Amino acid sequence: MPKAAIEDKTKESFTKAVSGRHLLPSLFRRRTPASRDRNDIEEIEYIPVLDGPAPKTQSGGKPPLRLLGFLLLVVLPFLASSVYYAFIASDQYVAEARFAVRSVSGSGSDADDKSDNNDTAQNTGSGVGALSMRSATQDAYVVTSFIHSSEILKRISGEIDYKAIFTKGDTDFLSRFSASEPDEEFLKYWNDHVSAYIDVSSGIITLKIRAFSPEDSVRLANAVIQESEKLINELSERARNDIVQSMKADLEKSGKTYSDALLALNQFQHTSGLLSPEAQAKDSGTILTGLLAQKLDFETRLFVMRQSNADGSPTYQQLSLAKDSLDAQIEKMKSGLTGPENASLAKALLEYSRLDTDRMIAQKLYESSQKNYDTVLAEALRKTLYLAVFVRPTLPEEAMFPRRISTPLIILLALTVAWATLSLIWASVEDHRV
Question: Which pTM was predicted?
Fold first, then answer.
């Protein structure tokens, strides 16, 4: 075909293609600002002048950027994870145990104690109430926190070399723990392989431990349960000792007050020579009454003898001497009862009454403290906490981890979503550049 004919045919096809652009829907046309004349722009056509042959399209070249990104971000990581989980990842066995923190509490209440003795119940109620505030659920949270702390690692280190379990050479390089890393990093590694959570409704603690052999997982689970039980016993004993020691301190204080009161009363009796001033005053009053009666009798007889003019007789003289002796005894007796000197019986009686009152008050306080102490001690013994293990860890027969099929599929799904998100972001950026 002649060259001129070819050029004419090429111009004709290009002209049809350009004119066909006006036939597209207005939705796909590029809009122009309203301030400009749209007719002027739409009527402009650019027809290239073809002096030479038509340009050739390249059939080969670099692959699309999206396909390359899909291969690098999705396909290669998925294949690598599939190979790792299928042939390299070490088996991990899970030992499971279930236990709960329980407390044995009595059925009595503070109101029952108050019906026995109001004063005693007021003192006892504070101790019993403090014990009642401790719930098993709170202690269960303490146990789970203890399992995920470094304290349990310190405790089990004396029985089990826990680091050697997770640093075995036959374990794959991604799963095992590096022995050169510090203890803080191992605590994070420990929390990844040990889980303990609480069922809020029942308070049951479920413990799961992952290790690279069935025996190691069971050994670690038994060690964790044993140390948790020791912790509960320590908490229970500490709470019991705190409340018992508080009541014991009150008992010792009231006992010392009572013994001091008894000692003071004993010293008074030893110093005064009176076992009971009240009894002594009563006896002295009886003797004084008898002496006064005898004096009255002597005075009557002397009066009769004087009226009979027998005041010079020997009998009268003897009666007079006897009356004088009675007067002296009566004055001495009165002086001993109410005299001003320090040895008077009235002052001794007052001091004895004060000391005896102190003794009685101290005795009542001591008896009340003793009863409170016995009550609180009984309540503390009834409310002892203990760890009830009802599902013991058994030797696992099948490795639960890694999940060799589901984990690579999840990774594939995540990578695909990430790649699609990045593609949408890239397309949005390119669209705004146009």
Answer: 0.58
